[in-house]
Amino acid sequence: MKIRKFNGKSEEFMAFLEANYADMKEYEAGVAEIGKQVKERGNQAIFDYNLKFDGAQTNNENFMVSEADIDEAYEKIDDEYLIAIRRAIDNITEFHLKQKRNSWLEPDESGTILGQVYRPLQRVGIYVPGGTAAYPSSVLMNAIPAQVAGVEEIVMVTPPGKDGKLNPYTLVAAAELGISEIYKMGGAHSVFALAWGTETVEKVDLISGPGNIYVTIAKKMVYGDIDIDMLAGPSEILIIADSSADPAYLAADLMSQAEHDVLARSLLVTDDASLVEKVEEELQKQIQTLSRKDIIEKSLESYGAFVVTTDMEEACEVSNIVAPEHLEVMVEHPFELLSKIHNAGAIFLGENTPEPVGDYYAGPNHILPTGGTARFYSPVTVDTFTKASSIIFYSKQGLMNDADQIIKLAEVEGLTAHANSVRIRKEK
């Protein structure tokens, strides 16, 4: 297992960052054809793609999850999982409740009232990945902020297995949140079904949740017809570490992201060159016992890197350039670096805060900006599922006070009808 090594912000490192995971253009025509088929053939196109991509036989009778499916799922899970998922629900709900915005109205002395009112979206679709692994945690991270926002209708889609059933852990997570409208479909075809509707599936206002490159392209194609949370790419982690960091922890955390996908990116940035060798030894040792060893090896070889900087100041600069999805700060005094970190989806401070505590349990959302988009994107929050309307009420006195200025601005822009709509009130 060979991992690239770079010195600080070298040209070689910058070129490594700029290398694309995949050229989306080569996939766009195929995804567009899937969209065309879903639009023209509705449910039957979904069933055909379920068979083609997931090997699952679905039809109008078994397409939507039934109460019997949910009961069967509960029989397959263990009590320890149920305890864990319920505690995670409590933590994630408590965190997102703090994000909820309040509507406001503010009058002035003339009687004019200005304000803003926040409303939840009516109906949203949450995409929960399947394929190489089950992600019940993604059910929670999608649905809980939507529920806190007050969304009335939440519909979930996730790929079925070859037996036509959904993963029981994913299904129980949805049931624990009271989600009852669940469809057995994944991939690009499920995105088009949610966005445009079929005979069975009613269209949504927004789709939230990460998926593979086909899902991402489909979300990009439907954006504008509906809203989306973000365009998520492969998972990534960057760790800033100094000489105090435990090499075993560093290796374990790098691999925790590498196991997601052969395209996942894992970076260690340190000012201690000797730490790199120790981490390499730990990687070789720990990987032998991990179930997704092959995926981890391919991921680290293609998208793993060690970056040695002159000091922690440069380490933070490197991190801000990368703008990682997950940033671990594993240094002796992590809070001292916090003010220097400007671009990151989620920041994990200290050696006792590995990335999985955020993925599953602590409370913050794990649907995060990837591919450097943390420079301008935020994690999924309650705001993702909320829209705002401005409130404007002018009293007669308020309009008279401001009329001349409004008319002037309209005339400067050459919009005489705008000016007239104010002038006619002033003159009358």
TrEMBL record:
Enzyme class: oxidoreductase
Pfam families, A to Z: Histidinol_dh (PF00815)
GO molecular function, one term: zinc ion binding
Active-site residues (renumbered): E325, H326
Cofactor note: Binds 1 zinc ion per subunit.
SUPFAM superfamilies: ALDH-like
Catalytic reaction equation(s): L-histidinol + 2 NAD(+) + H2O = L-histidine + 2 NADH + 3 H(+)
GO cellular component: cytosol
Gene Ontology biological process terms in this record: L-histidine biosynthetic process
Binding-site list for substrate: S235, Q257, H260, H326, D359, E413, H418
Listed pathway(s): Amino-acid biosynthesis; L-histidine biosynthesis; L-histidine from 5-phospho-alpha-D-ribose 1-diphosphate: step 9/9
Co-factor(s): Zn(2+)
Entries under PROSITE patterns matching the protein: HISOL_DEHYDROGENASE
Function: Catalyzes the sequential NAD-dependent oxidations of L-histidinol to L-histidinaldehyde and then to L-histidine.
Family: Belongs to the histidinol dehydrogenase family.
Name recorded for this polypeptide: Histidinol dehydrogenase
Source organism: Candidatus Syntrophocurvum alkaliphilum
Taxonomy of the source species: Bacteria, Bacillati, Bacillota, Clostridia, Eubacteriales
Name of the gene this protein is made from: hisD
